[in-house]
Fold:
Amino acid sequence: MTRINRVLFSTLAITVILACNVAGGQTPTNAPDFVATITAQALLIPTTQIDQPTPGVIVITATLAPPTQVLFTDTPIPSATITLTPSPSSTTLSVSADTNCRSGPSKDYDYLGALLIGQTAEVVGKNTATGYWIIKNPERAGNCWLWGNYVTVTGDTSKLQEFPIPPTPTPSAPNAVKGLIANKICFFNGVTYDLGGSITWEDAAKEDGYNIYVGAGLFNVVPANSTSSPIPHLLLAPGGSINMSVEAFNSAGRSAKKSVEIVCP
Structure:
């Protein structure tokens, strides 16, 4: 029997005994106060202490996962690659006299243009054996061969390509000259005119020289690339005239004659 039960049983026993005494003929002055008695007895009962855990701080230990580290990496913007190709230093040339430019290193080759005094042309190659320079044609697309006799070169020529001599073209008669004019001088002496001056023309292609005629007779022969010839000194009556002609020639034949009439005054 537990301690609490024993106390309750003792209290009930006392209550019964008191009741019996009252039943034996004694009239109590006051009716027993059972509630008070029970309460008083209950006060005598030692209070049972039920051990409770001392209140305290409940520590909840949580294992925290290490924070995820987020790395923000800038995506590099691809930079534009700029390739600078150095411009090669070009080799150029100029001439001290107007010079024809042909398809090869002689007058046997076709005329392709000319380089004039004051002009410059880019050099693309050379032929050391013949002394010709291969240049960008100043008059049209493509290259041509320029005789080096009147040439002044600017720049490095050591790395220029050596061009082989092209096959000689099939010879053909030269074309007739163009632009023939007379630069006359007519001096009147009171009776007649003293005639002088010169005739000039444009250089023809593929010529070996020029025949100059006065009337039907051969007057002069000038070499290739010539562009002028003197007018013979003659005495002309007022209103008199002479006819002069120019004919280009080479190994393949002669060109048609080009004529000009010279009149004084």
